[in-house]
Amino acid sequence: EERLSLADPEWSDVHVVTGALKLFFRELPEPLVPYRLFNPFIEAVKLPDPQEQVERVAELVQSLPPSNYATLRYLLAHLCRVMEHVDANRMTRQNIGIVFGPTLLRPEREPGNLAAGMAQQNQVVELLLAHFDHIF
């Protein structure tokens, strides 16, 4: 069994660690937001009323399997802390949405219009971050 140490110099680059984290989530057999909830999350961010969006997404998050819920909450809490250092890392809510949207939330089959779908995936992550305290 190979043992890793985060003290090794190869892990000092935050991009390596972030890449490994994204790869882990991307290679799960099913995304953190299960396939069955992909369309409901996308439909929620399309709602015209922002408060309705938040309420619907909160309901959907509560319907996640317990392990998915706990993992998503932990990851997003960490990403909220990352955003607190935006002056140093340039990781705005929008940038985090771009980086993690397609990783955490993806359709079972790729749609014809990939760009439009990705924008909405990003919006879901942005909404989760913006309203973290209310949703979780």
TrEMBL record:
Transmembrane segments: none annotated. Residues 1-136 form the Rho-GAP domain. GO terms for biological process: signal transduction. One of its GO terms (cellular component) is cytoplasm. GO terms for molecular function: GTPase activator activity. Keywords: GTPase activation. InterPro entries: Rho-GAP, Rho_GTPase_activation_prot, RhoGAP_dom. This is RHG15 protein. It comes from Thinocorus orbignyianus.
